[in-house]
Structure formats: structure tokens, C-alpha cells
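User: Sequence recovery, please. Input:
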């Protein structure tokens, strides 16, 4: 069953992520201590993540790496492809930035 992530509050999303990471950790038969050591973070941080507390993205990535879940980030943030018309307009040039239009 797919979860409707948009219906959750930010805190609810973070809590659900923590619960899922805990389940992955348990499935891999890792203690919080083992996960913390392999990720190079503290046990306290692992506990914070699992209890739905806010942590930095770098710490979260460290945990995802140990749990072998980094490939799933592609589903979270897939690359945006260009349409054939956009490719023709750019003629192989990829925009580096978008300039705002001047207002009068």
C-alpha cells in the first residue's frame, strides 16, 4: 500500500522515515550501536532519527549508505529530462541558471 505523503505534516513525514529506517536496521540485524559505528555517527543520533527528530541531511545520508538505501534516492529526486523541443532550442547547451525578467 502506498502512503499519501502529502497528507502528512512535516513532523509526520520525519517520524515515518525514522520508523522505516529502524525497520531496515532491524531487518539487517544491526544494533543502534553497530549502525552508529558504521555510519560514523553517535548512538544518540541514530535514536533521534528513529524517533522522528530532525537531523542534518549529511547524517541521514550516512545512515542510508550503511543500510544500502542510497539507490532509492533516485526515486525521491529523479533527474529532470529535457523534451526534444527543449534540446533543439538549446542546441546541446544546458542552462546554468535562470535569469529573472526585468520589470518596468
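Assistant: Recovered sequence (104 residues):
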Amino acid at each position: 500500500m502506498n502512503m499519501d505523503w502529502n497528507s502528512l505534516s512535516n513532523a509526520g513525514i520525519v517520524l515515518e522515515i525514522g520508523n522505516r529506517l529502524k525497520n531496515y536496521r532491524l531487518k539487517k540485524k544491526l544494533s543502534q550501536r553497530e549502525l552508529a559505528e558504521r555510519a560514523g555517527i553517535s548512538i544518540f543520533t541514530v535514536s533521534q532519527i528513529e524517533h522522528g527528530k530532525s537531523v542534518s541531511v549529511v547524517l541521514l545520508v550516512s545512515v542510508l549508505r550503511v543500510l544500502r538505501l542510497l539507490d532509492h534516492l533516485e526515486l525521491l529526486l529523479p533527474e529532470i529530462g529535457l523534451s526534444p523541443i527543449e534540446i533543439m532550442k538549446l542546441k546541446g547547451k544546458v542552462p546554468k541558471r535562470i535569469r529573472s525578467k526585468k520589470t518596468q
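The mean pLDDT is 88.
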